[in-house]
Structures are given as C-alpha cells and as structure tokens.
Write a structure and sequence with these properties.
Layout lengths: L1 E2 L4 H18 L6 E14 L3 E12 L6 E11 L8 E7 L6 H12 L6 E5 L11 H18 L6 E12 L6 E11 L4 E12 L3 E9 L7
Antiparallel strand pairs: 1-2, 2-3, 3-4, 4-5, 6-7, 7-8, 8-9, 9-10
Helix pairs in contact: 1-3
Keywords: Acetylation, Cytoplasm, Heparin-binding, Inflammatory response, Protease inhibitor, Repeat
Protein name: Latexin
GO cellular component, one term: extracellular space
Length: 220
Amino acid sequence: MELPPSHHSATRAAALAASYLSYQRGSPGRGLALRAVRSGRRQDIDGVGHKYHLELVLEDVLDKDSTVNCTAEVLYHLGNKNIAPDVQFTIEGELKNTDEADNIFYNRIKSLEKELVAENVPDNHGNISPEMEPIRLLAWVASGYVMWQNSTENTKFQLAQIKHVKQVKRSDEYLEFNYMILLHEMVSQEIIPWQMTVLWHPQHGVQVTRESRQPKHALE
C-alpha cells in the first residue's frame, strides 16, 4: 500500500530508520537526522507484522547542507512489544569523513585530568558550547539505539536534552559515559527520562551497554 510521504505511519517508520542509521554510522563527529521522506509503502505480512519500504533524505546534524539519500525497510513485529523492529538500509553516496574530528575529541577526553561531568546540554535556551557538541552528538547516536529498541508503530522519539552526563574512568582504550537523557515522544507528547551507558572508541564505534526508562521523578 502506497503511503503519502507525510503520512504519520510513514514518518514514524522513517524517524526510526534514521535513528537506527545514526546509531550504526554516527560518532561524536557525526549525527544523522531525518530531513525528508520521499516515498513510503506499507506491506502487511500475515502473522509477522507490517513492513515499511521507505526512501529518505538524511542530513548531518552539524552541517545541514550535507545530505545523503537512503532506502530503508522497517519491519514491526505483530503484537510482540519485546522484539525491536528489524531495520535494513542502503545509503547512496558517501557520508562525510569524521576521523579527524573523532580523534581530536578522543584525545581531548583521554587527556582530561578528571572525568568530564556536565548538565543540561543544550541549556534551556538551546545553546551548546563547542566543546560539548561531541558529547551531544554521542548522545544523539547512542539514543538512536534506545529508540530502535523501544519503538513501536505508534511511537516517534526525539532526543530533547542531556540532563546529566558523567564520564566513567576505565583502564582500557574505550571512553565510557553515563547519560541521563530526556526523550520527547512526539505521539503522546511525553517527555521521558532515560538512562544509558555508552562506550565509544574511534575504531570500534558506539555501543550502548545499558539503557533503561526512568520514572518521571528521576528528574527532581
């Protein structure tokens, strides 16, 4: 069934695909966001679920002029809330190389005398200092994993803010951060606190080792 690109179920599936893609291909130097849905089609697979076939345009969070086209398939499993949707994607063209920015950030954090701690990124006026931008992008990328694991056909998540982030000291090469983030669930308009533990290394990418939805009062 063809869906208009603006159809809510197409935009939800597209937002999920973009989150997943950002998690797979993002870094502290690159976050990907959904710019536009070009086309959408829904396929109902008996006894399995709904599969969306999508054509998307993604943009770089830091450089909105930098875009790539992408095709994606998102399969939502019927009735089972505990299975994350299946996402397959193909990117047309090349993503911007971020090795240099990633290595600069990695070396800067590695050379800190004490662990990084920060709150309210961006601040309540939407401002972010340049040195916190990679910390935000890392949260953006990692939150893509959280959204992928917790999405259904009736949700659409967006990262609203980092409430708190604390670096965790490690004896190996990885950087580790403990984040408390706020996710905006666009369908219910709920703001949900979420805890996630994130590992990152320039050669090995982003891993979310723990994530859990927090009660509202966790913010107080």
